[in-house]
Structure formats: C-alpha cells, structure tokens
Amino acid sequence: MSGSENSAGAAHGAASLTNVRHVTVIGSGTMGSQIAMVSALAGFETALVDIAQDPLELAKDQLWKRVDRDVEKGRRDGGDVTAAKNRLTFTTDRDAAVASTDLVIEAAVEDLAVKRSLFTSLDAVAPERTVLVTNSSNIVSSRIADATGRPEKVCNMHFFNPALIMECVEVVPHPETSAETVDTVTALAEAFGKSVVRLRREIPGFVANRLLNAIRREALSLHDEGIADVEDIDRAARTALRHPMGPFELMDLVGIDVVYLIRMAEYEQTGDPGSLPAESVTRLYEKGKYGRKTGEGWYTYST
Ligand code: CAA
C-alpha cells in the first residue's frame, strides 16, 4: 500500500538529528510530564519545567511509578530507566533551563494569550539556534510564532495521550516555518521512537483530532439527545469498532478540561458556534469534573 505521492513506510527521508542534545518541556501536566520522560528515555538530557514545585513533585512521582512498573513487567530495561531518570531534571527555573537548550516543547495550558507571552519569554532567553515548538493541537503555530523573533524556528509538534504509549506525533509547520525546522522536529520525533504524521499546511485539530472529533461530536449528540447512555455508546465503540476505549472513556483520559478548552480555542479561531463545546461537556467542566485526574468525569474513579 502506498500513498498517492509518497512511498509507504518511512516517508520522510532520513533527516539527521545532530543539533539536538538537550530538550526542555514546559508544563508538567499529563502531556508535558510524559513527553519529558519519552525524551529522557530516548537519550536526551531533558528539563521539565513548571511554575511551582508541587506539580513537579507529583509528575516525578507518577512518572517514576510508570517506568518502575514497566521494569517490573519486563517492558523496559532497569539500567535504561535509571539512566533516563538521571537525564531528567525537574525545575521551576525556566530561564536557566532554556538558556542552554536546543529545543523547547511547550505543553502548557491551551490558552492563546498564555502561549504567546510564554513564547516571547522563551525567545528572549533561548539561544539563537533553539527551536520552539508547541504541543497544542488546536492553536496553530502561526498564531504564536509572531510573538517571537524566530518564526522560522516555530511549529506544532503534537503528541497523543498517553504520550509514553501512543506512537503518533503530528508535525505541523506554519507558512514561515523553515524546512530545516520541520526536518529537525521530524527527526526528533523519530528519535523518540514515534511515528510521524507531517501536515503540508496548518489546520486547527490537525489530522488525528479532526477524525476523533467527528466521533466525539456524534457520541455527545447521541448522549445529549437521550438516544443512548454513556456506557452503551462506549461499549459500541469498543465492541463494534474495536476502539481501545470509547469516546467518553477517552474524554476522561484526556481530561474534560482539555476537551473543553480545545473547543473554546477552536471557537475563538473559527467564530462558528458549531465549534463550541457540547452542553454536557460544559456542565462537567464548570463542576470541575475533569475525568480521571479529578476522580470524576463521565465515570467515577476510585484513585
Ligand atoms: N499513561 C501511561 N501508560 C499507560 C496509561 C497512562 N495513562 N494507561 C495505561 N498505560 C499503559 C500501561 O503500561 C498499562 O499497563 P499496566 O497497567 O500493566 O501498567 C498498559 O498501558 C495497558 O493499560 P490498561 O490495561 O489499563 O488499558 P488498555 O489496554 O486499554 O490501554 C491505553 C490503555 C493505552 C490508554 C489504550 O486504552 C488506548 O490506546 N486508548 C486510546 C488512547 C487514545 O486514543 N489517545 C489519543 C487521545 S487524543 C489526544 O491525546 C490528542 C489531544 O490533543 C488531547
């Protein structure tokens, strides 16, 4: 099987990765923390940055449990995991981390103003060579790049939850992103052991989330119109379509807050009321029921 223009398999050529040794990840939430661990496991010196010590400690605790379990279960080598732990630093000193880093992956909150101001600060401190990417799936990088003096070194590098497991990374340039930046980010994702989906041009949601959103939108409408219960819709996805989890279970995994904020970010960009979050999602969001991370979302969780 091959694509219409590209040959199948490693379609992106062999971009070399000689210029990235140190990676900094901003934001120690679910995505940022696992992305940082992926980077450290792949052999890169990595800094995970957050504004406070508490989330960093929580992230460290959760990551160590994950990778230790992988060693216990024989899924990873103990020596590799110890080496990766030693390569990963947890810090609130963003400027110090960024001052000597080769590539920054921003995985902070899905809020355009926050991202723009963050990228301005990163640009002021990072060396000239440093590439700045955002893990956002909905805020395209052209909306952030002009907050820096290096738009050619900015693009989206989008991971999936849980980042330690999911193979796909989408690499999405904006019109001014250089080919060199796209090659560097592609090569980095491949060095992380990921499978890269490259977009020719940006569109909010990229490819995978647009597919996912179509299913999610339909699932929410079936639920909100009272056609079927959450459990049954999830069961249909799992047992009829062999999805690993149903759309509601997946929202709880990704975070209802993330689902809500992604829809709001899309609405900001499109102005289309059809982009707004479903009422049921808004209700959960307003009650702080964010899914697994708060113990309750569409389902309740014991831990
Ligand atoms: N983090 C890291 N590893 C995890 C994990 C997590 N949150 N949850 C599960 N795993 C790993 C563990 O190694 C686990 O094994 P152990 O329990 O022995 O440690 C293994 O996966 C199997 O887990 P489970 O038996 O609990 O469940 P599973 O077989 O269903 O696998 C899953 C879990 C990998 C998450 C799987 O259900 C799956 O692939 N789900 C779909 C995920 C998906 O669609 N992600 C994309 C979301 S969209 C997105 O991320 C984009 C965005 O912009 C927000």
* Count of helical regions: 12
Major sheet description: 8 strands, mixed
Query: What's the CATH first level of the largest domain?
Result: Alpha Beta
Please indicate the percent range of residues in DSSP E strands (runs of 2 or more): 5-15%
How helix-rich are the residues, as a percent range? 40-55%
The H-and-E topology, N to C, reads as: EHEHHEHEHEHEEHEHHHHH
Strand pairing plus helix content: what structural class? alpha/beta
Q: What's the mean pLDDT score?
A: 93
- Strand line-up in the sheet with most strands: 3-2-1-4-5-6-7-8
Total tally of structural domains: 2
Write up what this structure looks like:
With 303 residues, the protein is of the alpha/beta class. The chain folds into 2 domains: 3-198, Rossmann fold; 208-286, N-(1-d-carboxylethyl)-l-norvaline Dehydrogenase, domain 2 (Orthogonal Bundle). Helices cover 46% and strands 13% of the residues. The protein has 12 helices and 8 strands. An 8-stranded mixed sheet has the order 3-2-1-4-5-6-7-8, with helices on both faces. The model is unreliable at 4-10 (pLDDT under 50). The protein binds acetoacetyl-coenzyme A.
